[in-house]
């Protein structure tokens, strides 16, 4: 591992450890909830990053998997006992449903140009939105419903740690996934699809795999989100949910995974901070405008996102000092 | 015969680009496809690779019909393709590029890699460097080497001299010529001077059709044809 790579890993470890000790520094319930939300959206944004950042697949309806996760868990906890077992069963059902749906969508649209996937996901997510609105006997429509959560999740602190551990675990798994030979093929597809195919890779196969993985991870985040709110309504299927993931991963840096965590933190903290400022001056009640300005600033100053820009800067420094490798280091 | 195209017709959207192209490439040779811009040379290579699917005709590789296979299947048959723009994965280091190309990673591919690194020492020198940071000539070398390690006897190379300095073109052509001992090459090139030095067979394309073909020496001796179809005396 190179020195810069080691520093990168040390920084990531430092961030995760800081988040682990945060509850010892503050016992504010609202801080726990805020950070729990950051962790959940970080998982969701990482799943989106797999699609767009690594493979170049644009999805306008990624919220459908988030919504499937949210409703699946909520319905199990509402209609059966509020136990960890039913929570896990709800997550399992969400994983299976999301996996199947993303497989079907992928097989139907990923053999065509990428905007077909974007349009199909948008159409299906809106279909699910309407279905959730109309099927009131099950979902209570736009009013939504509350439900009890398992004992472990009732305590905000323990749920904070559950979400943090899940985020770190998924980050490690997805990072290993993107660094694997399969992940390298995905990156090659993202950079030049035809070239990857001309090297003998059946790109549809790889694109469907990544679409399933992204769908499943998004469903897990949706399930956690519903548990955090102890409430679900049709907003989980709204396009704003997809846009949140897009902005978080873009601000942090597409194709970096860690950027999604950072992006989620920035967006959620900015949202929270601006809402708090509304108590001081009415102009901050229009916090969406300030959030928009923040997006514009970040996109102008860091076109590759924060982590992406940092990596580019580091890469330039590294390339200046590249030395020939000893022959023994070549492909074994 | 290594490769045979029989009356292939290709459309790009509604445009009829290749209008009955027939050519053959002998094993162990360098065959050069000449023609002006827009003659259909690149589309011919893309059609062989399945990137521009043919509507009519046949493409046979080592006697097997491959004209209606998908691109990845054609690549797996052993045809290596170096596109006009090199098709480099900019974020990949030279090492990662070869790892990606060497799917089998068997002794044969390792041997090919070793030979390529001997032929193009720059690639060994910049083993850990990102491909996007290589010079134009180095990128071209990488694209050719990548296609070679992944191929099994036939390389399709599209205008390797494009955008390169004359000294680099000369070096590259020398390398392509030395590859003849281990592979067969179908080369698309506009630089007649250089390509005619290494090619043994030629085909001349105009408006989506093959208008001439034969031994390279015949074209070298035929100033009228060169003037008419390539605009050079």
Q: Largest beta sheet of chain A, briefly? A: 2 strands, antiparallel
Strand order of the largest sheet of chain B: 6-7-8-3-9-10
Q: What's the SSE pattern of chain A? A: HHHHHHEHHHHHEHHHH
Helix count, DSSP H or I runs of 4 or more residues of chain B: 10
Number of domains of chain A: 1
Silhouette of chain B: globular
Give the class of chain A from helix and strand content and strand pairing: mainly alpha
By CATH reckoning, the class of one domain in chain B would read: Alpha Beta
Strand content of chain A: under 5%
CATH architecture of one domain in chain B, by name, is: 3-Layer(aba) Sandwich
- Which pair has the most extensive contact? A-B, 26 and 37 residues
Question: What's the oligomerization state?
Answer: heterodimer
End-to-end Cα distance of chain B, whole Å, is 32 Å
Describe it for me?
- Chain A is mainly alpha-helical.
- Chain A has a single domain (28-320), classed as Orthogonal Bundle (ABC transporter involved in vitamin B12 uptake, BtuC).
- Chain A contains 15 helices and two strands.
- Chain A has a two-stranded antiparallel sheet with strand order 1-2.
- In chain A, helix 13 (258-277) runs antiparallel to helix 14.
- By secondary structure, chain B is α/β, with parallel strands linked by helices.
- Chain B has a domain at 3-83 and 153-230: Rossmann fold.
- Chain B is built from ten helices and ten strands.
- In chain B, the strands form two sheets. In chain B, strands 6-7-8-3-9-10 form a six-stranded mixed sheet, sandwiched between helices. Chain B has a four-stranded antiparallel sheet with strand order 2-1-4-5, covered by helices on one side.
- In chain B, helix 3 (94-101) runs parallel beside helix 6 and helix 4 runs antiparallel to helix 6 (136-150).
- Chain A binds chain B through residues 181, 184-185, 187-188, 191-192, 194-195, 197-203, 315, 319, 322-325, 327, 329-331, and chain B through 49, 51, 70-72, 75-76, 81, 83, 87-92, 95-96, 98-103, 105, 110, 113, 117, 124-130, 133, 146, 150.
């Amino acid at each position: 591992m190179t020195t810069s790579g080691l520093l990168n890993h040390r920084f990531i470890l430092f961030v995760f450890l800081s988040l682990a000790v945060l509850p010892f520094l503050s016992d504010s319930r609202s801080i726990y909830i805020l950070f729990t939300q950051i962790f959940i959206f970080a998982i969701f944004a990482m799943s989106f990053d797999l699609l767009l950042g690594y493979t170049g697949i644009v999805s306008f309806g990624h919220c459908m998997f988030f919504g499937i996760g949210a409703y699946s868990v909520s319905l199990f906890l509402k209609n059966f006992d509020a136990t960890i077992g039913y929570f896990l069963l709800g997550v399992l059902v969400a994983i299976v449903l999301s996996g199947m749906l993303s497989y079907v969508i992928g097989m139907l649209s990923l053999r065509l140009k990428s905007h077909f996937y974007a349009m199909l996901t948008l159409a299906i997510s809106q279909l699910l939105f309407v279905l959730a609105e109309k099927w009131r006997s099950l979902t209570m429509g736009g009013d939504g419903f509350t439900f009890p959560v398992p004992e472990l999740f009732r305590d905000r602190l323990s749920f904070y740690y559950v979400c943090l551990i899940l985020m770190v675990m998924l980050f490690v798994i997805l990072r290993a996934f993107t660094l694997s030979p399969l992940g390298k093929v995905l990156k090659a597809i993202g950079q030049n699809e035809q070239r990857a195919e001309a090297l003998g890779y059946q790109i549809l196969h790889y694109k469907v795999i990544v679409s399933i993985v992204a769908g499943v991870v998004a469903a897990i985040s949706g399930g956690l989100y519903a548990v955090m709110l102890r409430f679900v309504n049709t907003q989980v299927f709204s396009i704003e949910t997809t846009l949140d993931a897009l902005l978080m991963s873009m601000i942090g840096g597409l194709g970096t995974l860690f950027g999604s965590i950072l992006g989620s933190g920035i967006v959620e903290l900015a949202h929270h901070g601006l809402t708090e400022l509304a108590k001081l001056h009415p102009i901050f009640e229009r916090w969406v405008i300030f959030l928009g300005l923040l997006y514009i600033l970040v996109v102008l100053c860091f076109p590759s996102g924060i982590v992406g820009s940092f990596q580019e800067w580091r890469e330039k420094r590294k390339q200046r000092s590249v030395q020939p490798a000893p022959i023994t280091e070549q492909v074994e | 015969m290594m490769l045979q195209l029989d009356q292939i017709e290709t459309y790009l959207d509604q445009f009829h680009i290749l209008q009955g192209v027939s050519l053959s490439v002998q094993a162990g040779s360098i065959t050069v496809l000449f023609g002006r811009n827009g003659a259909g040379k690149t589309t011919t290579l893309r059609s062989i690779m399945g990137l521009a699917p043919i509507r009519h005709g046949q493409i046979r590789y080592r006697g097997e019909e491959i004209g209606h296979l998908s691109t990845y299947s054609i690549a797996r048959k052993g045809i290596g393709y170096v596109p006009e723009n090199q098709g480099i994965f900019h974020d990949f280091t030279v090492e990662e590029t070869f790892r990606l190309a060497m799917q089998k990673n068997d002794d044969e591919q390792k041997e090919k890699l070793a030979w390529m690194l001997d032929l193009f020492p720059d690639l060994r020198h910049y083993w850990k460097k990102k491909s996007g940071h290589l010079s134009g000539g180095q990128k071209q070398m990488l694209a050719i080497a990548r296609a070679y390690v992944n191929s099994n006897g036939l390389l399709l190379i599209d205008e390797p001299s494009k955008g390169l300095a004359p000294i680099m073109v000369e070096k590259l052509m020398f390398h392509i010529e030395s590859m003849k001992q281990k592979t067969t090459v179908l080369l698309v090139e506009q630089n007649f001077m250089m390509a005619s030095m290494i090619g043994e067979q030629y085909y001349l394309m105009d408006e989506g059709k093959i208008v001439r073909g034969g031994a390279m020496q015949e074209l070298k001796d035929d100033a009228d044809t060169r003037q008419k179809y390539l605009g050079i005396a």
